[in-house]
């Protein structure tokens, strides 16, 4: 049995943050009922058609869910939603526009008055209060507000992260806090309200750059794919035009790097390279030395030397190379997930337990489960047909 078998989540969600959180709950066995607008659905369904005609973002974040279409502006649809929550939900998740859930009567205060055990998780850009509470927030905007862009990219050009890291950060904190709330409810019998902010989630992830600039100190510089404060740590070209990534963490590794990789052991004795701070300050000179040492070697030869010296290293893989990564294949980490246009591979969620594999059921089509869910609430076929004719579902 999966850990969340028997838990039902009702979610009013779109884009990435909330769908990523609830998909992980579904992975663990929760029943996740996704409320979508009739005829349109989650707008992430329309981002692209890259995965057998289905949107890449949607395939990633929505497997194993049930899709129920409800026009929540319609009075009877609102009544259905509240009945569904009252009768079946353990958790309600929403990342609607600021204030929209409260106007629908879906605040924690409103829901907990009838159902004290309900857990309500609100995911927003800036949180439920404060001067920014009503601002719209998208991933790039939060990358800017959090300071992420100020330390990412090259000295000339700040760069956003490729994946939607602000959304992912918020989704992860929503997921972990919901799990904690479910554990707490087992002890107290009461639910709670979770207020997850994209800004706070990503600022927490700013980690050392934030403290590096503490008390007015200079922030770390943008250094591309190299580390801003540890050196050598980053990408270096080999003689065959390929790139090798490597990272040194301590003085023992620096001595081994000079001896076995650069084959210049005398460098380890030179004062200007005798600590990480000094190496970082002299990175231009040291970069020239490393590039010259690698110029007559292939990437495979560089990696062989790094491995022999026990220096951490990696390839700068393309997306196509990740699909065929030998480590993922050797650990049997790929599974098939069905879509409306056929199966696609999906990575087994990290940390999957040995008792039962995570659930990886099909990605739902829009409204696929509407009739079944309404029938489970006691609606007769004639009632469902009427609601459909009234465009409530």
Side-by-side strand order of the widest sheet? 3-2-1-4-5-6
Strand content: 5-15%
Which class best fits the helix and strand makeup? Answer: alpha/beta
**How much is the average pLDDT?**
95
Count of runs of 4 or more consecutive helical residues: 17
In a few lines, what is going on in this structure?
The chain has 393 residues and is an alpha/beta fold.
Explain this structure.
With 393 residues, the chain is an alpha/beta fold. It has 17 helices and eleven strands. The chain has helices at residues 17-27, 56-61, 75-88, 100-103, 108-114, 139-145, 165-188, 198-205, 207-212, 251-261, 276-281, 283-294, 299-308, 319-323, 326-330, 370-376, 381-389, and strands at 8-12, 31-36, 65-69, 91-94, 119-124, 192-197, 233-237, 243-247, 312-315, 334-339, 342-347. The chain has a six-stranded parallel β-sheet with strand order 3-2-1-4-5-6, sandwiched between helices. Strands 7-8-9 form a three-stranded antiparallel β-sheet, covered by helices on one side. It has a two-stranded antiparallel sheet with strand order 10-11. Helix 1 packs across helix 7 and helix 7 (165-188) crosses helix 8. It is elongated and about 85 Å long.
SSE layout and pairing:
Layout: E1 8-12, H1 17-27, E2 31-36, H2 56-61, E3 65-69, H3 75-88, E4 91-94, H4 100-103, H5 108-114, E5 119-124, H6 139-145, H7 165-188, E6 192-197, H8 198-205, H9 207-212, E7 233-237, E8 243-247, H10 251-261, H11 276-281, H12 283-294, H13 299-308, E9 312-315, H14 319-323, H15 326-330, E10 334-339, E11 342-347, H16 370-376, H17 381-389
Parallel strand pairs: 1-2, 1-4, 2-3, 4-5, 5-6
Antiparallel strand pairs: 7-8, 8-9, 10-11
Helix pairs in contact: 1-7, 7-8
């Amino acid at each position: 049995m999966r850990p969340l078998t028997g838990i039902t989540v009702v979610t009013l969600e779109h884009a990435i943050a909330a769908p990523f959180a609830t998909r992980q709950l579904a992975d663990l066995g929760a029943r996740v009922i996704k409320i979508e607008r009739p005829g349109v659905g989650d707008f992430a369904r329309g981002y692209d058609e890259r995965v057998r005609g289905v949107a890449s973002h949607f395939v990633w974040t929505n497997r194993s869910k049930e899709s129920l279409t409800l026009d929540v502006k319609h009075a009877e649809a609102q009544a259905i939603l509240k009945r569904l929550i009252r009768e079946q939900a353990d958790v309600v998740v929403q990342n609607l526009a600021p204030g929209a859930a409260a106007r629908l009567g879906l605040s924690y205060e409103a829901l907990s008055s009838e159902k004290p055990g309900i857990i309500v998780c609100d995911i927003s850009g800036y949180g439920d209060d404060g001067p920014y509470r009503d601002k719209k927030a998208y991933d790039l905007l939060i990358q800017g507000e959090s300071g992420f862009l100020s330390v990412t990219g090259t000295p000339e050009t700040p760069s956003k992260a490729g994946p939607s890291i602000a959304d992912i950060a918020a989704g992860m904190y929503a997921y972990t806090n919901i799990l904690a709330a479910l554990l707490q409810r087992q002890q107290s019998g009461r639910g709670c309200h979770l207020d997850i902010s994209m800004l706070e989630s990503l600022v927490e992830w700013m980690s050392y750059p934030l403290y590096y600039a503490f008390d007015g100190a200079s922030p770390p510089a943008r250094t591309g794919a190299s580390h801003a404060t540890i050196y050598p740590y980053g990408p270096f070209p080999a003689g065959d035009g390929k790139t090798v990534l490597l990272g040194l963490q301590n003085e023992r590794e620096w001595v081994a790097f000079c001896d076995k990789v650069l084959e210049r052991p005398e460098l380890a004795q030179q004062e200007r390279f005798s600590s990480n701070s000094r190496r970082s300050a002299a990175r231009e000179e040291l970069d020239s030395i490393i590039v010259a040492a690698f110029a007559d070697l292939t990437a495979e030869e560089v990696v062989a030397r790094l491995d022999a010296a026990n220096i951490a290293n990696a390839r700068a893989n393309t997306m196509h190379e990740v699909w065929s990564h030998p480590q993922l294949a050797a650990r049997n980490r790929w599974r098939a997930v069905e879509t409306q246009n056929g199966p696609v591979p999906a990575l087994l969620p990290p940390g999957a337990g040995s008792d039962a594999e995570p659930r990886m059921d099909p990605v739902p089509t829009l409204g696929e489960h509407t009739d079944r869910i309404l029938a489970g609430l006691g609606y007769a076929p004639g009632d469902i047909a009427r609601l459909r004719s009234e465009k409530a579902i």
